[in-house]
Write a structure and sequence with these properties.
Elements: E1 2-6, E2 18-25, E3 31-32, E4 41-42, H1 48-51, E5 62-71, H2 78-92, E6 99-103, H3 109-119, E7 126-129, H4 142-153, E8 161-165, E9 168-171, E10 176-177, E11 186-187, E12 195-198, E13 201-204, H5 211-214, H6 220-224, E14 232-236, H7 244-251, E15 256-261, H8 269-280, E16 284-289, E17 305-306, H9 312-324
Parallel strand pairs: 2-5, 2-6, 6-7, 7-8, 14-15, 15-16, 16-17
Antiparallel strand pairs: 1-5, 3-4, 8-9, 9-12, 10-11, 12-13
Helix pairs in contact: 3-9, 7-8
Bound molecules: succinic acid (SIN).
Succinic acid binds next to loops.
Length: 325
């Protein structure tokens, strides 16, 4: 469905915003055989026009709906990101569209958010949201999260790519899924959330980061014309880590590697040696940490590129974009 307009019978005087809802799948649109079933389910089966009928209150905006994808976000890939970014760009270019909301699976939400933040030249809000409970559950959290996302996308302080889950608002740069099952599964590390919904009011703790200041934007046209996104893999340090995985990846022609090191990005001698050999063979290597909190502090003479506060999964995206540049 492309561009269907949902009429929630609010009078036009109450509506100052038009929000595009670009649905992509996930648990927020997931169903199982019964309301009690949690583990065995299909992500993304509920279409966006059905999803918006479950909102717990009328949205403060006219909604324009598009079903961009219906995937489980564990299967998100470069082609999905490019397609979603192109659809975002299409809607953001329409002057009547004041913001976008993207229902998305929780599992790779932070990666999609970061990718979009690097390729969409917009000050209009683009808000990703999700759910930890299925749409078919007894008490789904998706409808509330979706309504919060629409409210956030109409807030005058909201700008750039954001995420909202369980009332917490996060930046694309900091957001991370940190829990496998609780409703508030996301956090922003040491930075904390940008804002919180409290009694249906949005309380801002900090300004939204400016994407332009944070990291350079990449022209979507340039990325879209790439035959293939560069292949960047993540390798993790752990007790007993050898360099065998790295050496095997180099054999397959990998373009970049992100080393998710222990602690402050440290690597076993064998893994470090393999990464240095990979680099000598022309593979770009970036050093990140497998820790959930904290940055890898850059050190003089480090043979590898710094991940500049990015988690390993986001450093992978940064390296992919950089390789294209
Ligand atoms: C997904 O990421 O698509 C499935 C899991 C979820 O949304 O919680």
């Amino acid at each position: 469905m492309l561009g269907a307009v949902q009429d929630f019978s609010l009078t036009m005087q109450h509506i100052r915003n038009t929000i595009g809802v670009l649905a992509t799948g996930g648990t927020i649109a997931g169903t199982a055989g019964s309301a009690a079933e949690e583990a065995d389910y299909w992500a993304g089966t509920v279409a966006v026009d059905q999803l918006v009928t479950t909102l717990p209150a009328p949205p403060p905006a006219l909604l324009v709906l598009e079903q961009v994808a219906q995937i489980d976000s564990k299967d998100a890939d470069g082609a999905f990101w490019l397609h979603l970014a192109a659809r975002c760009r299409h809607w953001l270019d329409q002057s009547e569209i004041t913001g976008l909301v993207i229902p998305h699976g929780t599992d790779t939400l932070e990666e999609t958010a970061y990718f979009l933040s690097r390729v969409l030249p917009t000050t209009k809000p683009v808000v990703l949201t999700c759910a930890m409970r299925l749409a078919s559950a007894h008490a789904p959290d998706g409808p509330r999260n979706l309504l919060d996302a629409i409210h956030l996308a109409t807030d005058p302080h909201a700008t750039g790519v954001l995420a909202v889950c369980a009332g917490d608002v996060h930046s694309a740069f900091n957001v991370q899924k940190v829990h496998t099952s609780r409703l508030n599964a996301f956090a922003s590390g040491d930075a904390g959330p940008l804002a919180q919904f409290s009694d249906r009011r949005l309380i801002w703790q900090r300004n939204c980061p400016s994407a332009l200041i944070q990291q350079p934007l990449f022209a979507l046209e340039k990325i879209a014309s790439a035959v293939q996104l560069p292949r960047v893999e993540i390798v993790m340090n752990h007790a007993g880590a050898t360099g065998l995985v790295v050496r095997a990846l180099v054999q397959t022609g990998v373009h970049g590697l992100v080393a998710a090191g222990t602690g402050n990005g440290t690597l076993s001698r064998a893994l470090e040696a393999a990464l240095i050999d990979a680099q000598a063979a022309g593979v770009r290597v970036m050093r990140a940490s497998r820790c959930a909190l904290g940055d890898v502090r850059p050190s003089a003479g480090d043979p590898f590129e710094p991940s500049l506060g990015l988690s390993a999964v986001k450093a992978r995206i940064a390296l992919m974009l950089d390789l294209l540049g």
